[in-house]
Write a structure and sequence with these properties.
Blueprint lengths: L10 E2 L3 H5 L3 H4 L12 E2 L17 H74 L3 H44 L2
Antiparallel strand pairs: 1-2
Helix pairs in contact: 3-4
Length: 181
């Protein structure tokens, strides 16, 4: 069956008339909500045993502990200093290796993109062959010309929009400058 979490704590509140009849001295001894109404719990509180503080240590132990901590700190500092010199040498060596790894990653990215382009082109050619049979090449060239024309139209439109945005930006700057005078 496994662990079962305890049920959520259910609370209740009396209606306003009954709650108002409880004397303030009694109300002060119990839990209330933000509006001063008593909160009634459906289950009694858990009866956990009280927690006791740990016994204090003897002065001799505390003095020994302080000396041991200081000694460990000195040893750690010396070890870190020795390791620090080694790490600097390794980092210099690692920097060269890291640059080489980055270069290899860039080369792999370029090769992956080229491979993707080749596969896409092969799939496109295969699709045209299936759809148009013997005349696939002419249809592909026709579609390519049409797409190039659309791309040129889009580029012209994008250029016009960019120029209009620049004009609007220029006008806004002038208006701000004139308005600020």
């Amino acid at each position: 069956m496994g662990y079962q979490a305890p049920p959520p704590v259910e609370t209740y509140r009396l209606d306003a008339l009954a709650d108002a009849q409880i004397p303030p001295e009694t109300r002060a001894q119990f839990t209330t909500d933000d509006h001063g109404r008593l909160i009634w719990f459906a289950v009694p509180p858990r009866n956990d045993p009280p927690r006791f503080a740990a016994p204090p240590h003897a002065a001799r132990y505390l003095a020994w502990r302080a000396r041991a901590d200081e000694e460990r700190a000195r040893e750690r500092a010396a070890r870190e200093e020795r390791e620090g010199e080694e790490r600097v040498r390794e980092r210099r060596k690692g920097g060269v290796e890291e640059a080489e790894r980055r270069r290899e990653v860039e080369e792999l990215k370029v090769r992956a993109i080229r491979e993707l382009e080749e596969r896409m082109a092969d799939n496109l050619v295969e699709g045209y062959r299936r759809m148009y049979g013997e005349g696939w090449k002419e249809k592909a060239e026709e579609d390519l010309k049409r797409w190039k024309g659309k791309m040129e139209d889009h580029a012209k439109l994008a250029g016009e929009i960019e120029r209009q945005n620049e004009d609007v930006d220029d006008r806004m700057v002038v208006e701000r400058l004139v308005g600020g005078l």
